[in-house]
Specification:
By secondary structure, this protein is mainly alpha-helical. The chain has a single domain (35-156, 216-329), classed as A middle domain of Talin 1 (Up-down Bundle), CATH 1.20.1420.30. The chain has 13 helices and six strands. The chain has helices spanning 2-31, 36-47, 50-61, 65-90, 97-117, 120-124, 133-157, 182-213, 218-230, 232-243, 247-272, 282-297, 309-329, and strands spanning 93-94, 130-131, 166-167, 173-174, 275-276, 306-307. A two-stranded antiparallel ribbon has the order 1-6. Strands 2-5 form a two-stranded antiparallel ribbon. Strand 3 (166-167) and strand 4 form a beta hairpin. Helix 3 (50-61) runs parallel beside helix 11, helix 4 (65-90) packs across helix 9 and helix 5 runs parallel beside helix 11. The two termini are 33 Å apart. Mean pLDDT is 80; it is low at 159-175.
């Protein structure tokens, strides 16, 4: 009973935190002339990945590579297939030319890089698959490139400046709402992140406890319950952003989070302790790569460059199928 109450409390904190985070981040974006998509890929994307970072770093320090890697792989699958799927059901997500040519390929590159780094047996004939400290440095270097590209894109593209007044539907001039002060926006972002992280921690702890009571293995917990739990901040942020019709922030959040999870979190985890990949099978890495490819393909279906509701439902069904296969195998195959 206590675990269920903690679970509910965690969800409430996550939802409240997501609301403040989205509002604060959007206000900062408008103040500094930065697009919502860039804010989503950086502040929101990395910030809402903090639960994954804490779990993976601690797991790596304790020598538990199964949880460190399984949490990231599972989280990225949950982000792309479940979160974007649910968000698209609420409001179709349009894909821009930059999304198709640069952003989504970057996420695909991250998945392919992890697959390459964790396939020592296949490429080198090694006795085991390990993401070494050298691999970790490579991942962190690619994260630095990703951040530099993101900042450069923001400076090149810019954003529309704040207007002194707008025109209403009846043609009358009207003054837009006064922008939030920077200090208040920062408090909202920090407070929102705190709620997301603490709420996510409560949820994961209670969900893991309930799963163990039900007799679910630790490996399955890492790639499903724990991965889904640490991804709840992204889910809440994207749902709130969709309800506010801020689809750029939702898509940027997921892409930024996925890239950060692999390049930053797994890169940092591997620096702390080399990560064995023996319990992460080809099925998991295959689904990870497939999810990015499917997101890219949605730009060319149904005559619109967007992730539509039908495609969102397909994403959700694919994720459910992955979970069923994982549970059926009894562990990460």
């Amino acid at each position: 009973m206590i675990d269920i109450l903690i679970l509910i409390a965690g969800l409430i904190l996550i939802l409240l935190g997501a609301n403040y985070l989205v509002d604060g981040a959007s206000a900062i974006a408008k103040r500094f002339g930065i697009s919502d998509f860039i804010i989503g890929m950086t502040i929101v994307g990395i910030g809402t990945s903090t639960p994954e970072m804490v779990v993976s770093f601690l797991s790596a320090a304790q020598g538990n590579a199964d949880i460190a890697v399984g949490n990231v792989v599972g989280s990225n699958l949950f982000n792309t297939l479940m979160i974007l799927g649910v968000t698209a059901l609420i409001l179709p997500l349009p894909l821009t030319s930059n999304n198709i040519k640069k952003d989504i390929p970057f996420a695909l590159l991250a998945a392919l890089t992890l697959a390459f780094a964790g396939s020592d047996i296949l490429f080198d004939g090694a006795a085991s698959n390990i993401v070494s400290r050298t691999d970790g440095l490579m991942l962190l270097s690619l994260f630095a490139v990703f951040m530099a590209y993101t900042i450069y894109s923001s400076q090149s593209a810019g954003a529309e400046p704040l207007q002194a007044e707008t025109t209403s539907q009846n043609g009358a001039a009207e003054t837009p709402a006064k922008p939030k002060p920077i200090w208040l926006s920062l408090i909202m972002v920090v407070g929102g992140l705190a709620g997301l992280i603490y709420g996510g921690d409560l949820f994961v702890a209670s969900a893991s406890s309930l799963a163990k009571i039900l007799g679910v293995s630790d490996a399955v917990i890492a790639v499903t319950i724990m991965a889904g739990g640490t991804s709840l901040p992204e889910l809440a942020s994207c749902v709130v952003a969709a309800l506010k019709k801020n689809t750029d922030l939702a898509l940027g959040n997921v892409i930024g989070s996925n890239v950060s999870n692999i390049f930053l979190i797994l890169g940092g985890s591997a620096i702390i302790h080399p990560l064995g990949m023996n319990d992460i099978g080809q099925m998991d890495l295959g689904f990870l790569i497939l999810s990015s490819i499917l997101l890219f393909i949605t730009a060319f279906t149904f005559k619109k460059r967007s992730l539509d509701r039908v495609e969102g439902l397909l994403f959700i069904l694919i994720y459910i199928g992955y979970v069923i296969l994982t549970i059926k195998n009894g562990a990460i195959a």
